[in-house]
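Whiteboard transcription, Tuesday session. T.W. wrote the structure tokens on the left side:
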């Protein structure tokens, strides 16, 4: 089957989704680079870039949400309680060491 030019074009939703996924990936990469940075100047640069990417990601998220393309589901109380319990256990474990 041969694809036409129309078959290869992204619509607005697909384009925004692709951009959002790219920003999320950049956030992961900058976070790893920040943790592994070996001097203060490099870490500061990564930190600044990470904050910029986080702002861009949030802007894309709000644009998608305002257009009805991205509707996050609210977390169930049980999931929130479980996450809080896990955090508290990890925090207490670190304090004990």
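and on the right, the sequence the group agreed on:
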């Amino acid at each position: 089957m041969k694809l036409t030019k129309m078959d290869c074009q992204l619509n607005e939703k697909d384009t925004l989704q692709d951009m959002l996924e790219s920003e999320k990936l950049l956030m992961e990469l900058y976070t790893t680079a920040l943790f592994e940075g070996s001097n203060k100047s490099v870490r500061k640069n990564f930190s600044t870039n990470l904050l910029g990417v986080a702002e861009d990601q949030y802007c894309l998220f709000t644009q998608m949400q305002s257009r009805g393309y991205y509707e996050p589901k609210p977390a169930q109380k049980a999931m929130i309680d479980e996450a809080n319990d896990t955090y508290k256990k990890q925090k207490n474990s670190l304090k004990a060491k």
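Someone added at the bottom: The mean pLDDT is 89.
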